[in-house]
Structure formats: structure tokens, C-alpha cells
Amino acid sequence: MIHDRPALGTCPICDRPLVPGPSVDRHHLLPKSLGGRETLYVHRICHRKIHATFTERELEKHYNTPAALLANPDIAAFVTWVRRKDPEYYDKSVTAQRRRKR
């Protein structure tokens, strides 16, 4: 099968294939509001989980690599759950588990 969109590889968070389209987002390793420029392609649901779990300051100081994100128990549990889903799966109900400080 010939695809008209380039392959994006796999998500560095959940390791599922990235299918170009609405299920994929770009994540700034360091928050853009804090000067971050480098981005990674990740699933939209993984991206929302990251931002629902951590503040921008937490992302800047402690969770600015895929390995650091995966070491967090909340993200690890999420990944265990989401790996069983289709690569294009998206659930709008992923929300913050605690009130984020701004």
C-alpha cells in the first residue's frame, strides 16, 4: 500500500506506531512558554496525559525527556493501559488528576 504521508515512526511514550493525522501531536520537551524549541511527535492522547499530569515547571525541571516521563508511576500506568489501544485511539476524557499550579 502506498501512503501519501511520511511515516512518523513510533511514539516515544507508548511505543505504538504514529499514524499521520489527528491522533498525532508535537510535544515540546521543554515547554514552549519557557523557551523550549525541540519537539517530538507523540500520540495526542499521550500528549494530553503528560500535560494533565505535570505543570510546565515540573516538565521543565524533572520531565524533559521521554525516559524521565516513563519513570513516573502515573505515566507508566497510563502507558500500560494505552498500549492495548489502536494507534489512532483518542479519548477526550484524559484530565488532570490534581489541580495544576500556574
Tag the structure with descriptive keywords.
102 residues; alpha+beta; 4 helices; 31% helix; 10% strand
Task: Kindly summarize this structure in a few lines.
The protein contains four helices and two strands. It has 102 residues and is α+β, with helices and mostly antiparallel strands.
Please describe what this structure looks like:
This protein has helices at residues 44-53, 56-61, 66-71, 73-82; strands at 24-28, 39-43. The termini are far apart. It has a two-stranded antiparallel sheet. The chain has 102 residues and is of the alpha+beta class. It has one domain. α1 (44-53) packs antiparallel against α4 (73-82). The longest helix has 10 residues, at 44-53. It contains four helices and two strands; from the N terminus they run ββαααα. The protein is globular and about 30 Å long.
